[in-house]
Write a structure and sequence with these properties.
Oligomer: single chain
Number of domains: 2
Strand content: under 5%
Order of helices and strands: HHHHHHHH
Structural class: mainly alpha
Number of helices: 8
Shape: globular
Number of strands: 0
Radius of gyration: 19 Å
Distance between the termini: 26 Å
């Protein structure tokens, strides 16, 4: 009979990050499908927050932001950059949901905070991960930051404003799902690791290295 490692309840904040990101991504796709004549290339993501799809977009965005803010409760004091970046990004996401694009400046500031600090959080998390997870997190953050710079200066490279905006948002969302998924379980179980590498010295080294390091995967 197989034994499975059950994450303790104290890891619920990062599990919320996983839930919040997945539900936002799925409902964004639904909103795009039902929005009349919506173009992923020519329409901004925030266009989904006004009109007939406003509830489908704004409510999940607020839930996502709240989940991101809550996820910072699990991060330690020595992870200040990651924790603060996630908090600001989450607060920005809440603002995007509360203040639709018709509010102009305040919406733009909230969106900028969500995008910029979401990318910073991805880069900062790379210090807490083993290869290749750290490389993926770093790359996701850099792609998002580069796309943000191109978006601000109006260089869309044929993707259109909506396409370039998605090059900012999607790497952050994918990173959020990945990071939450591999860290929400807390410490790696020695039994779990050795069970799947029963005669592998490499697996035993991974187990010894991982025990006591909650976020290094």
């Amino acid at each position: 009979m197989k034994t499975f490692f059950v994450p303790p309840l104290r890891n619920a904040p990062l599990a919320l990050l996983f839930f919040g990101t997945v539900q936002l991504l799925l409902l964004m796709i639904v909103a795009e499908c039902v929005y009349p004549s919506y173009s992923a290339s020519n329409n901004f993501i925030s266009d989904l927050g006004v009109g007939s799809t406003s509830l489908l977009f704004n409510a999940p965005m607020i839930i996502f932001g709240a989940c991101v803010v809550c996820s910072t409760l699990q991060l330690k004091k020595d992870e200040a950059v990651l924790r603060n970046a996630l908090f600001i990004a989450g607060a920005g996401a809440i603002g995007v949901g509360v203040f639709p694009e018709t509010t102009d400046t305040i919406h733009l500031l909230c969106a900028l905070a969500a995008f910029l600090f979401g990318a910073v959080a991805a880069v900062a998390s790379s210090k807490k991960l083993f290869f290749p997870s750290n490389a993926f997190a770093f790359l996701a953050g850099i792609i998002s930051l580069a796309a943000l710079a191109l978006f601000v200066f109006g260089n869309y490279f044929g993707l259109g404003p909506g396409g370039m905006e998605r090059m900012i948002a999607y790497p952050i969302l994918i990173w959020g799902i990945y990071f939450a998924g591999i860290t929400a379980g807390g410490k790696v179980s020695r039994t779990f690791t050795i069970r799947f590498f029963p005669a592998c010295a490499c697996g035993q080294r991974v187990a010894r290295r991982a025990v006591g390091r909650p976020y290094r995967f």
